[in-house]
Structure formats: structure tokens, C-alpha cells
Amino acid sequence: MNMKVTHIDYRRLIILAFLIVLMAVIASLTIGRDIYESGERSIYSFAIVNFFGYLFFFLLMPMELAFIFYLRTGYDPLILNMVAVATAMASQTIDYLIGYFFSAKIIDNLIGQKRYEKAEDEIRKYGNWALFLSNLLPLSSPIISLAAGMLKYRVKEALFFSFIGMICRYLFLTLLFQG
């Protein structure tokens, strides 16, 4: 019987724990505060949660569920879509720039080498389609944006195809879940 011994990367575990606590604080200060103080959810809270949810290191937040939640509470779908796309694109632009300007070693310490190498392979293989589909489907679009930056992928194309995919995603969710 051959047992594999795994090594625990405590630094990555500490970073993950810190990010989870930070997510909880952000959610508490936005959605939680709105619900407890006024019984309502504000578009401002959604914007903050959506923005942080699309940064590559907050991949545990299901942004589509937050969007559906706010959509079902009666917000104007057009305003909600505009806020969702604008905040997601702002975050993805930051993801791209982090990939562009920071070394692979720093990014490896944050998210792991396998994750961004897989994303790089997808971009090399499928190009603009990878950017479009990762934003259309509930995939790791922040990782794809980060990898596009690391590859020095054409910024206008990266952002354009991300934008089109994001618009299609949120329009589809609106049509599917609007009250």
C-alpha cells in the first residue's frame, strides 16, 4: 500500500483564511448593514459585493447568485445590469493589470500555478473565444483575465470580448430570473 503524503502550504492557507474573513467583513458592511438597518438592500451594496467578487482572489463568491437575489428584490433590471457589468469589468481590468505587471511567482503564491497555467493554455488555444466564454458562462473569468494580462494579450481585445460575454451573461440571467 503506497500512501501519498501531502504537504500543507501554510502561507497559502493563511492567505485564504484572510481573504475569507475579508469577504465576510465586506458582505457584513454592505448587504448585512443594509438589511439590518433599513430592511432593504441597496444598489451600492450590490456594486461593492459584485466588484470584489470579480477580483481574481475572491473566487469563492458566487456573483450570479447575488445578481439573481437583487434582481428578485425588484430592482430595475437595466440599472442592475449596468452596475453588474460595470463593476465586473472594473474588477476584470484590475485582474488583467495585475497579471500584466506582476511576476508569475507573486501570482503563483496567491492562486497557485496550476490555475493560471490552465487559463493561459485556454487563451493560447482559443484566444478571444476563451475570454468571451469565460465571461458568458459561470467560469473563472477573473483567472482568465489575469492570465490574459500575464500573456500580454491585446488589452482592447481582452476587455472587449470579456465585456460582450459579461453583457450576454447578465442579460440571460435577467431573462431567466426576472420576477
UniProtKB/TrEMBL annotation:
The keyword Transmembrane applies. The keyword Nucleotide-binding does not apply. Residues 76-177 form the VTT domain. One of its GO terms (cellular component) is plasma membrane. InterPro entries: DedA_domain (IPR051311), VTT_dom (IPR032816). Pfam families: VTT_dom. Keywords: Membrane, Transmembrane, Transmembrane helix. The chain crosses the membrane at residues 12-31, 43-71, 78-102, 129-151, 158-177. Coiled coil: none annotated. It comes from the Bacteria. This is VTT domain-containing protein.
